[in-house]
Amino acid sequence: MSGFSAYVREQLKAYVYLLIDPRNGEVFYVGKGNGNRVFAHAQDALKHTDTTSDKLEQIRAIHSAGLQVEHQLLRFGLTDRTALEVEATAIQLLGLGELTNKVEGHRVWQRGRMTTEIAVSLFDAPQAPEIKERVILFRIRQLWSPEMSAEELYEATHGWWKLGNRRNDADYAFAVNQGVIREVYRINSWRQRKPGDRDWQHDIGKTSKRWGFSGEVAEELAHYRNTSVRHLFKKGESSPCKYVNC
Questions:
Q1: How confident is the model over 202-215, as pLDDT tens digits?
Q2: CA distance 150 to 112
Q3: pTM, 2 dp
């Protein structure tokens, strides 16, 4: 089958679909669509041979084996908004690393899979205990999501920031998102951004380069995790970095 009839398309409305490899029965892609979207990927793999992606390469391998991609509908009769939510849920449940999808899905950082402790912290995080250590609070804004790996969270926090010499007085760095501490790090050293680092090209031609720290998770300060430091920021304060006790 290469497409639905007009009547079937009308009845299906928005839907969430699965692409399945018939060689092992495993889902390798989850998508949201309308009309004949579910069939478009296999057609693209054949028509646009100069385009590559993990998804298209797997489809071509299936065809090379003399087989066809299996198409399934996970849910249909949906609104577009609901279909986006179902798609994101399916991707998170199956695991992005097991699929050829490049992104997790719609607003997973806001409403996606998370521990109950993190869910509470999104809406009712207790105020952080008095911070007595010498700390820099780094507001990572939209870079954080409940599903971030430890490596991804460290990468988002350790650099790259506009900082002066005052940075050398800090012993710890806190990753802060929406006013809540998500991780705490011990600062071991500082260095300026260089070629190969994330967004390093933005420093080209500038006399003042951004800084990043090397460090490790500070388990001795674990009691600060998922607590709020909103009270430490003035209303309307937009600076991404804030010094505490240094």
A1: 888 888 889 999 99
A2: 17
A3: 0.63
